[in-house]
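Ex. 9. Protein: IclR family transcriptional regulator.
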Amino acid sequence: MAQAKVSAAEKTVIILKAAIENRRFTDIVNESGLSKTTVHRILQTLIDYGFVTVTSEGEYIPGPATLTLAGHAFEKIDIAKIATPFIEELAQETGYTVHIGALNGTEAIYVAIENGKTPYRIPSKIGDRLALHSTAIGKILLADFSHRAIENYVKDPGLTPKTPNTHLTLESVLKDLEAIRERGYSFDDEENVPGIRCIGAPIRNHTGKVTHALSVTSLALENSIADIEKLAPLAQATAEKISHALGAPETSH
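Predicted structure tokens for IclR family transcriptional regulator:
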């Protein structure tokens, strides 16, 4: 059966994407699946308009026009607007409150909240500040820090005790963060507020860096730590959907 004809516009998009992801001409040809003649012709047009640049070594890299457009796009990204449809679905499916937090210096802040169907409301609001060592969102963000940065955090602002369950030593924090990296999600087992348990998952930007985190929150009376861990696949799947919407590369866990 004959393949559908690829339009000129589609070919241009295919080659631009291939040129951004590959530096060598042969790799761009292989990635695009188009003929060398077609690739060369369209690449030259992209070069003429500044979307692709050729280095002195003959490699293809994003040009100034592409970088300018990317900059404008990133300036317009609103994580709350992007995440809201996904966390609405998660809150509906789990019945619990879902938060999105962003790193803000040595702490995190809530940037989006969606309440669940429970008869109670978690007393949180947009802009609330969170410690990194005692919250599910904060731990996800802290787990992406370098070892030196974690040591610096432990020294300043320090490990403020929130509850009897809060980690208060560097050794304890490092052990917790290593477990988070291995399994891909975090717990807040009444470590920040008595009676509250949460599970957290990472949200990555277009570079793959963890810039935000998602948490699902419930009362400890409702869920043991084993119960709330059952929400991990849903939390991770939602975080990955948001990450994908932000342009993050595909990941596996």
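Check your answer against this statement. The mean pLDDT is 91.
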